[in-house]
Amino acid sequence: EELVKCLPNAIPDIDMDLCVRKAEQSLRFLLLGTIEPRKGQDIFVQALALLSPTLQNGATFQMAGRVMDPTFGDRVKAIGATSQNLSITDTLNHQEALKSLAAVDVVVFPSRDEAMPTVTMLEAMSMGKAIISTTVGSATEFLVDGKNALLVRPEAAGELADAIARLIKQPELAVALGKNARATYQKHFTMDRFGPQFRELI
Question: Could you tell me the pTM of the whole model?
Answer without folding.
Answer: 0.86
